[in-house]
Amino acid sequence: MAKIKHNNLLDTVVSVMTNAKESGALHLYAEGDSLNGRQIQIKGKHLYHFGTTGYLGLEQDQRLKQGAIKAIEAYGSQFPLSKSYVSHPLYAQLESLMGDIFNSPVVITKNSTLGHLGVIPSIVDDSDGVILDHQVHWSVQSAVNPLKLRSVPVEMIRHNNLEMLEDKIKKLQSRCKKIWYMADGIYSMYGDYAPIKEIMQLCNKYPQLHIYFDDVHGMSWKGENGSGYVLSVLKELPDKVVLMGTLSKTFGASGAVFVCNDNNIHQRIKNFGGPLTFSVQLEPASVGAAIASAKIHLSPEIYTMQAELGERINYFNECLLKTNLPLITVNDSPVFYIGAGMPETGFNLVNRLMQSGFYVNTGIYPAVPVKNTGLRITISRHNQKEEIKALAEALEYQFPKALEDTHTNLDRVNFAFGRFNKNLDRQIKPTSNLKLETYNSIEHIDPELWNNTVGNHGFYDWNGLKFLEKIFRNNDSPEHNIEFFYYVVKDENERCILATFFSYGLWKEDMLAPESVSLKIEKARETKPYYHTSYCLSMGSMITEGEHLYLCQEESSWKEAFNLLLEQLEALEKKLKPQFLILRDFDPQNTALKSYLHNKGFVQIAMPEAAVYREFDWENEVSYFETLSKSSRKHFRKDIEAYKDKFNIRVKQTITPGELEKSYALYLAVKKNNLGLNTFGYPRALFEHMNSSPQWEFIMTYLKEKDMLQVGVMFCYKNSNNIYTPAVIGMDYEFSREYNVYRQLLYQTILRAKELGISRIDFGLTAGFEKRKVGAQVKERCAYIQTKDNFALEALEWLRKG
């Protein structure tokens, strides 16, 4: 029944990055005739370079340059032949040197992405399982994805959560020969480390556990012979651990290196590693440069370079720790992350630093949650102490100005990262004459004000919300308890600029996921009923559908009104600590609102289509038929009119206890069979209230040839603004398809609304195709969300791919 157009993650990423590009923080071009590592020229301005991943500065070392030049002169610009046939003359020397660095057998790959794509599907057997840290690099996750086609179970854990890791190991150990845990040695955004010692303790505890480390950001600047962060902890590579390092980034050349001590795995990869077998090998210049770098790594000089970098890292830490800047992780890695919170704050700060003479990277979604946007600053041996100090001073000076420009403060930034939230309730100095009014019950709001703004839709007019507050309170089941919050923003003339309501309650995380995902999760919920559920702070509520926000975008002050709302919501988040903040249901074509909310740290996701019926300019059923399109008329004759005489239709204001019991059972049948919009079931008390309220009525459908068996019911609300809302439906699935019960209920709803003199039917979400066929206007809808981290979204995405 429900046909939902699900969100494409790529569309969201492109949209967020487009905003970053338009702000001047992304997709820039370096200029000039040469590079020296210390400075970079962008838009005609020479900037000190604090964005490199070449932490030791080896890419500018003359020995590497000469190694590349000599290799080109001797062997040409490339050696266009697969390594499976013939490796060019320098390969054997490079493999030997890299083996010496790691003291283990190695395989050289074109780059780490191709390395993962070649290695992971080769070392993971069909009888194995995989567990991913949800922040492991995209290239690892991409290489794991094809394993699902081979029915390899793939699980995901929250970042560095060893308790969750052990739970997943226990879950897989009875069905998997090997369990591969895949993580980064050092994570590229925040510069934090994997808890390697603790992971190895789990390896000792669970013989099936094997580890796959991506240590490309730990290479060269750490470890004996620059063998990386992982080996700096392990000292020697255990047989149950495999490692992917890099010959680019800090190593200064190009390519990647796979390392393992398991001879069977090593030979398997070397003999046939998918793209490693069929891809053209590294260019002679890359191999020549890598050989020169490897020789440096095998000399005492590498330790001098590591020490010089360490001094710069320590100095930058000292400079930053004297400030009030939100440094997210403090350790000895060359990666520093300064939190900005909202994307617009991060973009503003990046541009301010460029104007001050410094280039740094922007940390942005999907590498981090949207509201965890920040500056990813890297330190290299190119950076001198005077410019490191100058950068810290520029950050300290420009950071508060960026906050002021984007109407936020340090408390809100810290709160976005879960840090130092004591002063979040401090208000930002108002920049307009708008005032925000907050309420915890609809009864404290003027009914006329509410019904002329937000309440002009669905069954959340003043009376509807009054009864919802009563029903969703003091219930035994956690999902049936909801807190309501109301907000009104007025100008100095008491005109309403913004009005909305929010609810706080337990949601299923797969509410808007594809039906295939919900089917898998519902299977798990048979034993764990609250699996993949989270508390959410949502505009509207789980039970309501439609336009929950009244916003006068014609007024120049609408953004300021929205700013006041978002600030108040952050204060509420501090108290309630929801996993998700959700704004819904919006027109995705509202580009001004979309741009505004992206800059405020919200990600757009698609929602089911909404349907509204307004075409009541007809006198009878014949003239109604004439309002339909040609294709819809054909549909009407075949699927609705042909079955009409088989039904007995009754509209009832109240029903007997037996009829209520039957109607509730029909609702539960729809709930069970329609996972396109997967929510918790509504409490029985809701339906009992419907039966006692004059604003609710029931369209009952009975089959004449089945002894007047009730096979359908539409629970309909009569809004105070002459709007009719078929809010809940129930059907008997034994007969629904044979008699087209759903389509008949849609048609009978239109007839009933006409009889009542209704001006509009709010048909709500899902089944847009069916509603369009009876003359409803269907519109795309979207939501905007913020989340504490990307784990839940990424975990659902993995279930979708599987």
TrEMBL record:
Its cofactor is pyridoxal 5'-phosphate. The keyword Transferase applies. Keywords: Aminotransferase, Transferase. Residues 631-765 form the BioF2-like acetyltransferase domain. Pfam families: Acetyltransf_6 (PF13480), Aminotran_1_2 (PF00155). GO terms for molecular function: pyridoxal phosphate binding; transaminase activity. InterPro entries: Acyl_CoA_acyltransferase, Aminotransferase_I/II_large, AON_synthase_class-II, BioF2-like_GNAT_dom, PyrdxlP-dep_Trfase, PyrdxlP-dep_Trfase_major, PyrdxlP-dep_Trfase_small. The keyword Transferase applies. Residues 76-395 form the Aminotransferase class I/classII large domain. This is Aminotransferase class I/II-fold pyridoxal phosphate-dependent enzyme. It comes from Antarcticibacterium arcticum.
